[in-house]
Amino acid sequence: MSSEHRSASEDTLDSTRRDFIKTVGVAGLSGGAAGVVGLAGLLSPTQAAEAVTLCAGDTPDEARLDLGGTPIYDVATDYPLCNEGVLPPLKARVLALKQLILDKNLLGPDGQASIDHFVDYYENKVGPQFGKAVIARAWIDSAFKDALLNPEHPNFEPYKSSDKRGPFAATWFIRDFLDHASSMHHTPPVDGDWLAPTELLGYTIGPEGEWLRVVANGKANSTAPFVHNLVSCTLCSCYPQALLGVQPVWYKSRQYRARSVTAPRGILREFAAERGAAYPGLLEDYLARVDEVRVWDSNSEVRFLVIPEPPADAVVTGIVKDSAQEIALRSRVTRNAMIGAEILYPVS
Q1: CATH for 126-339, among 3.30.70.260, 3.20.20.220, 3.90.330.10, 2.30.30.40?
Q2: Contact between 133 and 330 (Cβ < 8 Å)
Q3: Whole-prediction pTM
Q4: How far apart are CA 283 and CA 265, in angstroms?
Q5: What average pLDDT does the segment 252-281 reach?
Q6: What is the mean pLDDT of the chain?
Q7: How far apart are CA 121 and CA 86, in angstroms?
């Protein structure tokens, strides 16, 4: 974790930095478990030359200029103007690993079915809606929020007197909420069970969600500093997929990974500028209240979820659990805010 207190030097440098948001216009790669789906890889410069032409509308992904700046492709037949038969190296490796898993029977006699369940889970069920539900519940239930932030000493039933506590016990609290909140089962994907064991392959809430720490923006108490939290993975793309879905491309870009540590306020400003209109001004009002920016380095041993401040126009007191009002609050939460890369704005 690093802390950044001053913005003067950052403001000076902002004029020379590349707008990393505009470098990720090409379709994204999915990381982690979603690699099983066999999503896009990178063409080498040689393969790009052999392909003769780029697909209409495609441009090189500048976030990967260090890898040759070649476009991202999946199967060439998905792009009518591309030569057929191109299989990117990364996809070839993914398919080879999948076949090896099946050949060695590592997932049992129904290995293909297990993979299909897992892929379907990440394609059609998991996503930011899980994280949004957790954030909305934390806004309206102070005991739940306190348990997420202090998992070693939860003042939250049924875990107050349980042995399920510790630095990563927030995973258990979240699993319990997702399993039992009636508002999570209005449109159940699998017979009322959002987290079916057959689809999680033994994980509590899904891969990259087991070793989870939760942090909150704002003041911990009336005398504490106002803190804004930002999550990055300076090595690659570690990220709580189980709650937020697959990583956005910008999260994996070198620009974000480097600048999130050196210029976190600049990151927030660029996301606000991308929205246009009055958002930069609203962000500056927010930053004027921030005493400290904390950048959390997500990695293979721990991942982070940010509880953002509610939008200024959101009512979060007096809301009944599992009510229509709580469900409506979920729509106010964004994936980027749960990473800390943006704040939540009032409805314009």
Answers
A1: 3.90.330.10
A2: yes
A3: 0.69
A4: 10
A5: 92
A6: 74
A7: 28
